[in-house]
Write a structure and sequence with these properties.
mainly alpha
């Protein structure tokens, strides 16, 4: 079952080139959250937009909050 949110442009994707050191880091985070690397990159981009004060629709904010909760839960387990 695809995990992409409804309405996501899947045919008009962009290429994202990560440095050799960045790809395993993002891949590790994605694996911990049972996501694809592409999905994780998308969430990180949305988080970066929010950090810059760019308004994101409420539906997207819920996805980011879910991700933050997952990080907090994982940190508590360690």
């Amino acid at each position: 079952m695809p995990r992409a949110p409804r309405g996501l442009l899947s045919r008009r994707g962009i290429n994202l080139r990560l440095k050799e050191i960045e790809h395993p880091v993002v891949g590790s985070i994605a694996k911990q959250e049972s996501r694809s690397v592409a999905s994780m990159c998308r969430l990180l981009i949305l988080d970066g937009l929010a950090f810059r004060g760019i308004e994101i629709p409420e539906e997207e904010l819920e996805n980011i909050e879910d991700t933050i909760l997952t990080h907090v839960e994982q940190a508590a387990m360690v």
